[in-house]
From TrEMBL:
It catalyses: UDP-N-acetyl-alpha-D-muramoyl-L-alanyl-D-glutamate + meso-2,6-diaminopimelate + ATP = UDP-N-acetyl-alpha-D-muramoyl-L-alanyl-gamma-D-glutamyl-meso-2,6-diaminopimelate + ADP + phosphate + H(+). PROSITE patterns: FOLYLPOLYGLU_SYNT_1. Its cofactor is Mg(2+). Signal peptide: none annotated. UDP-N-acetyl-alpha-D-muramoyl-L-alanyl-D-glutamate binds at S30, T158, T159, S185, R193. This is UDP-N-acetylmuramoyl-L-alanyl-D-glutamate--2,6-diaminopimelate ligase. Pathway: Cell wall biogenesis; peptidoglycan biosynthesis. It is found in: Cytoplasm. Pfam families: Mur_ligase, Mur_ligase_C, Mur_ligase_M.
């Protein structure tokens, strides 16, 4: 595509070169530059893209977009140099134009909130697929069309950087996807990754402490999440959340609410019954009342299902079809997934990595508890330090025995993360620290007796542990399976 066409919708100054130059790809990181790339220089928190201009030249970029005139001594005379006021703001506009605005080609649902984004997205996409729609999903579990990963793309964050996102959308459009459900993270919003997305529906699940490291304050975190809703013509909001009224205030079109405790909700649930395998409830709306069964454990499944039901109704499905589809859903990978040991204890591998999620999951287990609850967990490094002691306190309060271990330490010392978590722990006799996660899981499994539950929280289906910039293979399910294979055979459930 000609650079001039790519720049069609932004204000810019051409410092040198030809805007008729042909561009084969858009790169926001020096590692992604190829022959005939356009390189966009972003100022980051640690690095500055303007420092990579010499690399861009070497790797074959034919044009660069800058926001300040530094590093230009490396630029040859025939390279096109474009200046804009704010490259981070220009990037989504450029990316969307480069891929010819793919999000206009399908219905787009954005799900935000501290917890439950993957779970709600997964429910919506499962229901839509069950009724025959071709569905794209973008989120923590990857970028998929129906259940297949979009192969060409590298691993991206929950909400991919805008160029990767628009590229995924383009693949979805090219394969005639009808509906796309995406997780919209606070950093995705703050870094303008979703700026050019044409949303049809916005969903708010809940808001509690997380990512205070990246945002600096809870207020900034909340403001980022709120910024999704002015972009959505229709919104669905969890009215049970203490911040619901602020999110309602941020909407810019019609909206509906869902809730369990708040009976004012447009969609609410009554008669909730929960067991180890799933949840039963009655869904109530002004136009219908129906019994629902969802084979995913945890009371938050009720709340997540209400959001999904509301969304699927808006996307044109009948309530009967939605309820039928829900009976057949499988839980998302690594979210409260159950493994029964032949000895009679139960292992649950889960992704709770925030105080609210950990507390909810432990409270959800209380009613189905028949023996002791063991928790194996740790906290990620280079992430919100403030949540560590709070999670320690919650784990020791709501379980019988805790084994404190490593999550993804990243650049931090594991022992110092563990010390932060330990500050919140209560009864010293009821926990121990085993830094090596595999050993910690083995220890919990060897202590478990029939009817006990071992909750392994924080990493879900993550396949790698990030230590000091390198990734080593580690998956909590594999550890459990290895342990059980050495002892007996297992029965694994979705
Ligand atoms: C905190 C955060 O969001 N960081 C994002 C941000 O990084 P940054 O501002 O620190 O960038 P930087 O490292 O200082 O680099 C500045 C610029 O130099 C460029 N650069 C840098 C190094 C180099 O060798 N070459 C090069 O060109 C970078 O591409 C960037 O354009 O801008 C980068 C480029 O757009 C992003 O890749 C990076 O996300 C990284 C992958 C990240 O880990 N983000 C996490 C925190 C994240 O976004 N998580 C959310 C939330 C998870 C959830 O709640 O579910 C998510 O959506 O996954
Ligand atoms: N509605 C909910 N409220 C609170 N906790 C929930 C809810 N739904 C799921 N959880 C808990 O939170 C964990 C993470 O859920 P999920 O992966 O859906 O969240 P997420 O918002 O996608 O997280 P991330 O920010 O990492 O992408 C689950 O494993 C479960 O323990
Ligand atoms: N989206 C979250 C995932 C955290 C998962 C946990 N295992 C960790 O590494 O802290 C984040 O990047 O903060
Ligand atoms: Mg997620």
């Amino acid at each position: 595509m000609k650079l001039q066409t790519i720049l069609n919708k932004i204000d810019y100054t051409t410092l040198q070169g030809d805007v008729q130059v042909n561009i084969e790809s858009v790169a926001y990181h020096s590692g992604l530059i190829q022959q005939d790339s356009l390189f966009i220089c972003l100022e980051g928190t640690k690095r500055d893209g303007h420092d990579y201009i010499a690399q861009a030249v070497m790797k074959g970029a034919v044009a660069i977009v800058i926001q300040k005139q530094v590093g230009l001594e490396f630029v040859p005379d025939d390279m096109t140099v474009i200046q804009v006021d704010d490259t981070r703001h220009a990037l989504p506009i450029i990316a969307s134009q480069f891929y010819s605005h793919p999000s206009q080609a399908f219905r787009l649902v954005g799900v935000t909130g501290t917890n439950g984004k993957t779970s709600v997205s997964h429910l919506i996409s499962s229901i839509l697929q069950y009724t025959g729609r071709k569905v794209g999903t973008v989120g923590t579990l990857g970028n998929r069309i129906n259940n297949e990963d979009i192969k060409a793309y590298r691993t991206t964050p929950t909400t991919p950087e805008t160029v990767d996102l628009q590229a995924s959308f383009a693949a979805m459009r090219d394969q005639s996807v009808t509906d796309v459900v995406m997780e919209v993270s606070s950093m995705g919003l703050k870094n303008k990754r979703v700026l050019e997305c044409q949303f049809d529906v916005g969903i708010f699940t809940n808001l509690s402490q997380d990512h205070l490291d990246d945002h600096g304050s809870f207020e900034d975190y909340k403001e980022s999440k709120l910024s999704l809703f002015p972009m959505c013509p229709y919104s669905i909001l969890n009215i049970d959340d203490p911040f619901a009224s602020e999110f309602i205030g941020a909407t810019n079109g019609s909206y509906e609410t869902y809730g369990i405790e708040n009976k004012e909700a447009d969609l609410n649930a009554t008669g909730i019954k929960s067991d180890e395998k799933g949840v039963h409830f009655q869904v109530n709306h002004k136009e219908f009342q129906n019994d629902v069964y969802v084979p995913i454990p945890g009371e938050f499944t009720v709340s997540n299902s209400l959001a999904a039901i509301c969304c699927c109704l808006h996307l044109g499905l009948d309530i009967e079809d939605i309820i039928e589809a829900l009976k057949h859903v499988k839980g998302p990978d690594g979210r409260l997934q159950t493994i029964h040991s032949p000895e009679g204890y139960t292992v649950m591998v889960d992704y709770a990595h925030t105080p609210d999620a950990l507390e909810k999951v432990l409270l959800n287990l209380s009613p189905i508890k028949k023996g002791n609850i063991f928790v194996v967990f740790g906290c990620g490094g280079d992430r919100d330090r403030g949540k560590r002691a709070v999670m320690g306190e919650i784990a020791s309060r709501w379980s019988d025995y805790v084994i404190l271990t490593t999550d993804n330490p990243r650049s931090e010392e594991p022992a110092s993360i563990l010390a932060d978590v330990e500050e919140g722990m209560q009864a010293p006799g009821d926990y121990e620290i085993i830094e090596d996660r595999e050993e910690a899981i083995q220890r919990a499994l060897s202590m478990a007796e029939p009817r006990d539950i071992v909750l392994i929280a924080g990493r879900g289906n993550e396949n790698y542990q990030e230590v000091n910039g390198s990734k080593r293979s580690l998956n909590d399910f594999d550890v459990v399976e290895r342990f059980m294979n050495q002892h007996t055979s297992t029965i694994k459930e979705g």
